[in-house]
Amino acid sequence: MDVSILEEQYDCIKQKQKLQTHIIVFKTGENDSVHDESMVNAVLINKKCCWTVVRMAQKEFLTAKLKNFLREDKIQLWKPPYTNENKKVGVELKELAQKFSTKLELSEVEVESLLEEIRCKAIERGTGNDAFKRTGIATLEVSLAGNKGKAKRKNSLETKLIITGKELRSQIAQTFGLQENRLKIIANKKILDLGKTLEEQGITHNVRVMVLELMHSQEETKRKVQEEEKQKEEDALKEKEIKDRLKRTKKGLEILAEREDYLDPDTTPYLDIANQTGKTIKIPPRAKKALVLAMGYHEKGRALMKKNEYEVALPFLLDADKHFCECGTDLLNTVDNYAVLQLDIVWCYFRLEQLECLDDAEKKLATAQNCFKRCYGENHERLFVIKGSLGSEKVLFLRLYLLQGIGHFHNGKEKDAAKYLKKAYDLFQELFIDPEKVNCLLLLGFSPQEARLGLRATSGDVDRAADLISNRRETKAEIRREERKKRRQRLEDINTLKNMGYSERAAQKALHQANGNLDNAFQILVSNPQLFLENDNNNPVTMNQFQVPKESIDQLVYMGFDRESAEEALKVFQGNIQLAAQTLARNGGVLPTELQLLSEATTPSEESTSSKDSPTESAGTSSSSTDEDMEVDAVNEILEDIPEHEEDYLDLTLEEEGSIIDKYLSYIQIPQP
């Protein structure tokens, strides 16, 4: 590619930057002082370095694009007629260069050079594969990083995989004329362990290794080694922290997912599934548990993404993906959470520069797009009916188009990349928020998040945004008032049932089954006397330890019940004459079979009775208390990561997305309006 074209592109980008913000450019290496008040943004720019970066990006892009053309036409450059029997280039390669030069808008010479590079690498790889199969000697692609002005070099090295890292370092030093004790070798994203064999470190045939030649004194090298050891320790601690986080999150989410929604949320928090207005959605128990776990892991991952801890966030997001798949397609087709999760996973791939995950990323982006279509409608008509606007959700499509464009770029698909990056750019221009309008809403007492979401939902209209935010606040306040009213009534009903002799847990369960109707709850308790045995502290009622007063037995006998049945009923109901009489009357003067069996099953042995006051009780109590504290901490950690605003996932500043869009648009040379 003509360097003058690259220089012209660079100068054009530089002029656009000058129009956007004030930049002071320093020549590399100069350290003249500049007054603070004269700067807005100070940036060191090496013009030659910028050209080099653009050249590398352009070459990588063109090579990927050329490989796609070859795959589409099923052309294998390492075979005739492009390669003869002596593995020399065939004349047909020039014809191929002429064919593709028009498509790539490059000269035939440039295309022929790229084709020859691809052909030679393919032949070299094939020769190495044959040799490896015959002799077990692997070929490594050695990249010698440039130092002190030296250019970066790529070379091939043949070696056995049973040698140690130290032996490989020695071989590289001898082959390329380097000083062995100054070399650092990186393979599979890790520094090569000198004491282990290449096989033990997962190095195989055709693996790429990078060789760094250190230019430090002995003291500096020693310091570097110490820093590396410290880094290893920090990495180990970080890995342990990630595992501990995953373990705590899993524990907390499982506790919350198992908790019944009849409990008092003020004393025993649990997770509920609500719609965009905050009202509870009824979901079958099994699907609800899977959805709670999925959304819990997702929120944890999103909280870490906000802190730019993408490496830690990704495992949580992948766990969320696993649990979402257990919810069933009917549920996933009605909520956009699954689509948002796919975007978050791919965004982590991109931020972690995991380009080897491009195939998985493409599938996840397609899944997200289809899910949005099912949830929002073909033209977002369902979303408009539900929310009355489309502005806030457009940020999701901006990120979707941006990630699709990036994926196509790295796969060498220029037209598709241009199409989606342009769509992302147009949405970015539409969703850009004027800071002055945000300040106007802040002065009215709204939060920055409310201001951004409100302005996007109303296409930047400050007055409408203020009305929308106020209406949302009033709707939430009304829901909270209704919930407080229901809770007060529920507490009164629970106390009424407790005064009848039932435990709080039994009262809660009965009211939950009766949808809050006190009379129906009472009938449920009467019809299911075993609910009386529900104990508030989860310990079984020890019936044999209760001494039934003779007067109570006489009262039931006076009512016409058998003395033995009366005593057994009073023992089961802990002396509650009213419940004992009601149960006996409803069951023909005898206890129901399930209560009789329960009474027999809960009779403790002499051994367990005598051991209740043993010295181990205090230790067990202490252990139980510690476990409870750990559970409380795990649950609280989950609750802290759940955002208060239901549209928190739509609140993107788009600053990061904007810079990424500009970067990739400059690579594919699309003129910006």
UniProtKB/TrEMBL annotation:
Q: Name one Pfam family in it.
A: UBA
Instruction: Determine the domain of life of the protein's source.
Output: Eukaryota
Q: Provide ranges: composition bias, Low complexity.
A: 600-625
Coiled coil regions in record: 211-243, 465-492
- Biased composition range(s): Acidic residues: 626-644
The family database entries (SMART domains) matched by this protein are listed as: UBA (SM00165)
Q: Domain (UBA): give its ranges.
A: 432-472, 480-528, 547-587
Q: Extract the PROSITE patterns matched here.
A: UBA, UBIQUITIN_2
Q: What is this protein called?
A: NEDD8 ultimate buster 1
* Native source organism of the sequence: Alligator mississippiensis
